[in-house]
Design brief:
heterodimer, A: alpha+beta, ten-stranded antiparallel sheet, B: alpha+beta, OB fold (Dihydrolipoamide Acetyltransferase, E2P), five-stranded mixed barrel, 6 strands
């Protein structure tokens, strides 16, 4: 197991080192969930300091072998960010795309969800403007592609906790071998059970409240959100190829909405490096004021409502750039 | 001095509280006009540190010499804090000169002005990225401050 871990770490190191640092990219295609530079590196005038040291952000090294628990499984515990830098990058929109994104679409292409033609009208709806609904599964994780917030994993014998700051989410996943209940209650996060397949933790989720939108499942951003049916089945695969790197792969099945299952590329998350980076309260609904939207002009509202549906009718690879 | 500052913050908050509603979680283009962004130079008068968006308030002199109160939306407090901009940075620079590059709201409030900040520079001289950056051609080295 240790040798395997070491081998994986070496492979991860090679992949990371060989990842191209592309400082300038044109267009909005294939952004891998990031929102990095397309106009040049982030530099200030001589002598001017930029808060957050965004100009010094780099691709994180592998950091050593995969940590393991006593039972030999990888220990996924840690706080991770949805990028290659091991830190929060919200606001750092001009850093190289290779650091910002979660996958390289040229190396690991990700096909967008292909919707059933009869499902577009019923299931394609952007998130209601100005509201802060719960995320649900898998959105609490996938929406970090544009929220840039942390995912914290706490792994203890028999269960794994998945925590996100925004949307503030607590998921408890049993890993003791139990199956789903025969008739699980519906909830925002659904009923999840986990199992190990080699070094990969596979979390299987059903019974997700149909009011929950899939955000950044495929195209990124709230405008591309889509609803799902009661038949939705979510499979998430977590692995930790090295100490600093977590990989998240998502499959969403929903025969009422999708022509075929959506299968994501492996998405990169990296371990937070700053010991002062701690859990922060983020209760969005305290400041939920959808009346801002009501005051907008009709054309703007129609453009927002229409944006998601237009994207949904264009199946194919690597879609819009999100928000 | 403390009383003056607190009073100023409360007065501005009170004024804006009725006129301009705090926006919640949203995309930029729906609410703000990224084609009309402008440079603002004035005095930092307040900060509101709340989720999902923090706000700063500044007074800007208009052509007639009067004060225009701007309320500028920023990104979330937890992101600002992790990226080197804290609430304490604003309080330490309160009442002092500041610069902002900001984009106005599509619908102006009844009083003052409302917008989304891209870059700011408080009196401490540190350049801070505090919002989304719709102006792709305005990099930090091209700012007028």
């Amino acid at each position: 197991m240790t040798r395997l871990g070491l081998a994986l770490a070496v492979v991860a190191s090679v992949c990371i080192i060989s990842a191209p640092v592309v400082a300038q990219r044109g267009g909005g295609q294939g952004r891998g969930g990031g929102r990095g530079a397309d106009t040049g590196p982030l530099t200030a005038k001589p002598g001017v300091k930029i808060a957050g040291d965004f100009d010094k952000v780099k691709i994180l090294e592998a950091g050593g072998a995969t940590p393991r628990t006593r039972d030999g499984h990888p220990d996924l515990s840690g706080r991770y960010y949805p990028n290659h830098a091991g830190r929060m990058l919200q606001g750092a929109y001009r850093i190289p795309e290779a650091i910002m994104r979660q996958f390289d679409p040229e190396k690991t292409p990700q096909e967008n969800p292909v919707f059933r033609p009869d499902a577009v009208e019923k299931y394609q709806h952007p998130t209601p403007y100005g509201s802060c609904p719960p995320g649900g599964t898998p959105t609490s994780i996938t929406t970090q592609a544009t929220e840039h917030g942390p995912l914290e994993i706490v792994q203890v014998p028999g269960r794994v906790w998945l925590l996100t700051e925004f949307p503030q989410t607590i998921r408890m996943v049993p890993t003791d071998g139990r199956p789903h209940p025969p008739d699980p209650d519906t909830s925002f996060n659904g009923d999840s059970v986990g199992r190990w397949e080699g070094d990969t933790l596979v979390i299987d989720t059903v019974a997700i409240d149909t009011r929950m939108r899939n955000i950044s499942v495929g195209r990124t951003g709230d405008a591309n959100a889509w609803l799902h049916s009661e038949k939705e089945h979510v499979i998430e695969r977590f692995s930790r190829p090295s100490k600093n790197y977590l990989t998240y792969q998502l499959t969403v099945e929903d025969p009422e909405v999708l022509v075929k299952p959506f299968v994501s590329a492996p998405h990169v998350w990296t371990l937070a490096q700053d010991p002062n980076d701690v859990w922060t309260e983020y209760v969005c609904s305290a400041n939920e004021e959808p009346e801002v939207y009501k005051n907008l002009d009709q054309q703007t509202k129609e453009e927002y409502e229409k944006s998601g549906r237009d994207a949904a009718t264009q199946s194919g690879r690597q879609g819009g750039r999100g928000r | 001095m403390k009383v003056t500052f607190a009073g100023a913050v409360m007065a501005v908050c009170g004024l804006l509280g009725l006129a301009a509603s705090a926006s919640a979680h949203h995309g930029f283009n729906v609410e703000f006009d990224g084609t009309k962004c402008l440079d603002l130079k004035g005095t930092l008068t307040g900060v509101i540190w709340e989720n999902p968006h923090a706000y700063l308030q500044m007074d800007v002199k208009d052509a007639a010499g009067g004060n225009v109160a701007w309320r500028l939306e920023m990104i979330t407090p937890n992101a600002l804090k992790r990226n080197g901009t804290t609430r304490q940075d604003f309080t330490a620079n309160m009442g002092k000169e500041m610069n902002a590059r900001a984009c106005p709201a599509k619908v102006a409030p009844e009083e003052g002005q409302r917008g989304a900040a891209e870059y700011i520079k408080l009196a401490d001289g540190i350049l801070r990225i505090v919002g989304q950056l719709p102006e792709r051609n305005i990099t930090p080295d091209k700012l007028n401050f």
